[in-house]
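Propose amino acids for all 395 sites.
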C-alpha cells in the first residue's frame, strides 16, 4: 500500500514537476527536463533552462510579490511544456493549407494558435465558473430565500455562502473532467510525478517498484494551491459589502487576485518545507482534492516520471540512459496514439511503428569512415542520418 515515506531534509523541495499528455516535466533549479513516451514505446527527453525574473530583479523576490511572479512564470512554463509535449507525442498528421500558410507567413504553427486560444478560453471559463457564478448564486439566495424570509445576510455570511458554492463547483468540475479518458491518463501521470518525487525525497533508489510504494499526495501540488486560493478568497470576500452586485464582486475579486496568489504561494511553500501536525491539518483539504486529480499510475508511467527526474539532475544520475526505459510497441497500446483505433487499424499501426523503430535503431548504428575525395549524395544522406541520430541522443 502506498504510504508517506520519511523525507530526507537535503532532498526536500529540490525538484517539482508537471504532468502532461503521455509525459512528465521535472524542474530542478533553473533546469527542466520533459520526458514523454513516444507512440513506438521509446522515451523522448527534452531539456531546457528557465531562469526566473526574480534572479534578475531582486525586488520581485520579497514575500507575497514572489508568489505573484511565481504564478505567472509557472503559467508560462506550463504553456511551453504542454507545447513541447504535443511536439514529442509522435503523432503523424499531414499538414493542411492553414498550417502551411501560418508557417510561411507568420512562422507559427496551427497547434500554437489553438493552444493560445484554448488558454484564453480556459481563463475566461475559470473566471466565469469560480468568480461570477458563485457571486450570482449567492445573490439569488439573498433575493429569493433570505430577504423574503426576513433574514439579512451580512458580508461574512455572503462570503461564506459564496465560498461554499465555489468549493462545490470546483469539486464538480474536477469530477467531470476526470471522466474523460485522456484527462484520466494525465491524472495518472500526475500520480506518477508525485510518487517519483516522494521516492526521491525519501532517499530511496529511483525505480518504478520503489516509487509505486510511495504516496501520490503532495502538499506542494498545484491542486492544493488552487484549493488554498479558494479558502483565502473567502476571507478576502468578507471585505466587500454584502449589497454589491455579482459583477462588482467579480471585478473586486479579480483586482485582489494577485494578493491571494501571493498568500497562497507562501502557504504552499511553507507546507512543503515543514511536515508537522499543524501543516498537515492546513494541507488536508488540498490533499483530499488530489484524490481526484491524481490516479494510481502503472510502472510504465512511473518510469517516465523517473526519467524526467534523472534527466533534470545529470550530476546525481550521470549514468542515466533513457533507452533503458523503452518498452515494446505492443505494451504501449494504451498510448493516446491508439485512441479510437479499431482492432485492424491498431495492428497495422503497431507494425508500422515497429518498422519505424527498427529503422531508427539501425540508423544509430551507421559507421561512416572519414570521407576522402569527392563527396557523393549518398555520403551526405548517411551523414544526415547519423547527425539526426546523435541529436536524438543529446535530447
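Proposal:
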Amino acid at each position: 500500500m502506498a504510504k508517506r515515506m520519511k523525507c530526507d531534509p537535503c532532498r526536500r523541495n529540490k525538484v517539482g514537476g508537471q504532468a502532461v499528455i503521455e509525459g512528465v516535466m521535472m524542474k530542478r533549479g533553473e533546469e527542466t527536463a520533459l520526458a514523454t513516451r513516444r507512440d513506438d514505446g521509446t522515451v523522448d527527453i527534452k531539456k531546457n533552462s528557465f531562469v526566473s525574473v526574480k534572479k534578475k530583479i531582486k525586488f520581485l523576490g520579497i514575500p507575497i510579490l514572489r508568489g505573484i511572479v511565481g504564478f505567472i512564470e509557472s503559467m508560462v512554463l506550463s504553456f511551453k511544456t504542454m507545447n513541447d509535449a504535443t511536439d514529442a507525442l509522435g503523432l503523424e498528421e499531414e499538414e493542411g493549407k492553414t498550417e502551411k500558410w501560418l508557417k510561411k507567413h507568420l512562422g507559427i504553427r496551427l497547434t500554437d494558435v489553438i493552444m493560445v486560444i484554448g488558454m484564453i478560453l480556459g481563463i475566461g471559463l475559470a473566471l466565469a465558473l469560480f468568480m461570477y457564478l458563485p457571486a450570482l448564486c449567492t445573490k439569488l439566495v439573498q433575493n429569493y430565500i433570505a430577504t423574503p424570509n426576513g433574514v439579512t445576510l451580512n458580508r461574512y455570511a455572503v462570503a461564506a455562502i459564496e465560498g461554499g458554492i465555489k468549493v462545490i463547483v470546483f469539486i464538480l468540475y474536477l469530477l467531470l473532467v476526470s471522466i474523460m479518458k485522456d484527462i484520466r491518463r494525465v491524472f495518472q501521470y500526475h500520480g506518477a510525478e508525485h510518487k517519483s518525487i516522494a521516492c526521491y525525497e525519501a532517499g530511496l533508489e529511483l525505480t518504478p517498484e520503489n516509487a509505486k510504494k510511495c504516496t501520490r499526495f503532495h502538499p506542494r501540488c498545484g491542486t492544493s494551491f488552487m484549493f488554498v486560493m479558494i479558502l483565502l478568497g473567502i476571507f478576502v470576500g468578507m471585505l466587500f459589502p454584502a449589497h454589491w452586485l455579482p459583477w462588482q464582486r467579480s471585478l473586486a475579486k479579480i483586482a485582489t487576485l494577485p494578493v491571494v496568489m501571493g498568500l497562497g504561494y507562501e502557504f504552499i511553500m511553507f507546507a512543503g518545507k515543514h511536515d508537522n501536525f499543524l501543516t498537515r491539518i492546513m494541507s488536508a483539504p488540498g490533499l483530499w482534492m488530489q484524490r481526484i486529480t491524481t490516479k494510481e499510475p502503472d510502472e510504465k508511467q512511473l518510469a517516465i516520471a523517473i526519467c524526467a527526474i534523472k534527466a533534470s539532475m545529470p550530476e546525481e544520475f550521470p549514468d542515466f540512459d533513457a533507452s533503458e526505459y523503452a518498452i515494446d510497441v505492443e505494451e504501449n497500446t494504451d498510448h493516446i496514439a491508439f485512441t479510437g483505433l479499431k482492432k485492424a487499424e491498431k495492428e497495422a499501426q503497431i507494425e508500422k511503428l515497429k518498422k519505424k523503430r527498427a529503422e531508427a535503431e539501425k540508423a544509430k548504428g551507421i559507421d561512416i569512415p572519414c570521407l576522402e575525395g569527392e563527396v557523393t549524395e549518398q555520403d551526405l544522406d548517411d551523414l544526415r542520418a547519423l547527425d539526426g541520430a546523435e541529436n536524438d541522443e543529446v535530447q
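The longest strand covers residues 31-37. The chain is about 60% helix and 5% strand.
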